[in-house]
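User: We ran a pulldown and think these components assemble together. Before we commit to crystallization trials, I'd like a predicted model of the whole complex to look at. Sequences follow.
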Amino acid sequence: MSQYTFITTPIYYTNGAPHIGHAYTTILADAMKKIEQMKGNTPLLSTGTDEHGQKNQHSCEKIGKPIDVFLEEQSALFKNLFNRLNIDYDFFVRTSAASHKTIVSRILQNLYDRGLIIKKNYEGLYCEGCEQFKKKCDLDENGLCPDHQVKPKVISEENYFFRLEPYRQWLKEYITNNPDWITPRNYAKEVLSMLEEPLEDLCISRPKSRVWLGIELPFDKNFVTYIWFDALINYISTLDWENNEKFEEIWKNSYHLLAKDILKPHCVYWPIMLKAIGIPPVHRCIVHGYWIGEGGIKMSKSLGNVVDPNEVIDSIGTDALRFYLLNNMNSTGDAPISISLLLQGYRILANGLGNLQMRALKILDKNLNGIIPAEVELTNDDKKLLQDISDSFKSIYAQDLSLSMVNELTNQITNACSLVNGYFSSEEPWILAKDPSKSNRFKQVLKTTLEALSLIATAAYPIMPKISKEVLNSLNIPTENIITDFNIEKLKSEKIKVPEPLFPPLEKKVLEN
RNA sequence: GGCGGGAUAGCUCAGUCGGUAGAGCGGAGGAAUCAUAAUCCUUGUGUCGUGGGUUCGAAUCCCUCUCUCGCUACCA
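Assistant: Here's a predicted model for the assembly, 513 residues in total across the polymer chains.
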């Protein structure tokens, strides 16, 4: 029975250009979508851009463009990158869209009418340089803002607040009773520790005098709503929550993907907001770490170790980038990335999968006129090899979506390539080919190798969609609808052509400037 | 300061229930020549961050400390 799976990325802040972290989360979401698709489910992928708030406003003012032009351009940077990354999104949310604003507005009004949003005075230390309130512990020993060396002003202003504390106990119990709600589990622990202390009221308004780029509070025209309150709602506004009769069915199987820095908004504010609205929490939160430079050094422009996703695509291609990212993020912490690591990753693919395809197809082309010997009966050992590969993929695909599941998949792709390369080497088909009496064995080895290749290519589809299709096409296997069909013998006796290399040698210059 | 993560082979990391440490990459040696000089095989005695405790036995549980990263809300 087909079921919906709703997969979301955060909506990305349009203040700057997309970086490798944006690329990763979105690739992960896309890979998960494709996994669900292959299983016969109906996945929906939502991503988008977050276009309100102070920083967007400032960037825009600095550049001096009309706001809608600025936002359109910035949002397009993300859209373009995602297209280049082969992201098959179903929704691209822009918080500046009227439909989104309407829903946010309605939710605000509803919570206000029910007395869940209250107005009160807020007094705090405000640094005009930072344009934000500071806590005492943020200041240096002289009570100055560490960034501006200025004493913050005591400002008192009226604001609207959403009360979180009444829901704290409920959320605590929810997380305790649903230990897999936040995965990996160490992040659930962190959220639980946030819930140990009483939660302060969440200030959900900003006076327009400070921030004008936002959604106006429907009950007070002097304020816009706090960006997080607006942004989180994208996850339901994108589904047109109130009017979508399938909402419950879709939401039941929803996954939020996020980086660890936005754990609190997603795992504290958001479930509480939903609870207040009357919607159950998302099915699962999948949290991941950061990409950092080689040697554990943070990426920064001054160090010149920033990895720009568009440049990487230019040099090693989308699928090699996808593979690297999905293969190398570990489930507990941060993961390193650099040009040389990416090149190493590319080489592993070229030498493993690329070489396997090429050596098998070329020998087939030379000796059997390019016709796949599909009719030959395999030995039990050959069949076992295929069955083992097939079983390993099947068991991975049977798992729930998670970081470790994706990791196992990429590992198993590499392992299978190496296994089959080993098989090929030890069977020495190039020697068998010279001896007419060994023709049957030759055909068995070739068929086994090609069948294995088709299994690997099928399994790799979510990770490397383009490469996967190229391999399958080279074996004359249709690719319109790739499913988790790990049948070990599906090739037909058809003539194939030797294709161009999947991962051609790179020109070194491309990457080393 | 508080909370949380990490600390395991040169590098990046796995290690589920506690039972004498694993993978990939790199390095070294060899085989092979079908293939994008790609492949295959062989090769790792590491104080599992420090000190202590529990245990017949701990990388794995408990405590101390050190280093490191993140969060600590109104910047996202």
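The radius of gyration of chain A is 27 Å. That may be worth checking against your pulldown data before setting up trials.

User: Thanks, that helps.
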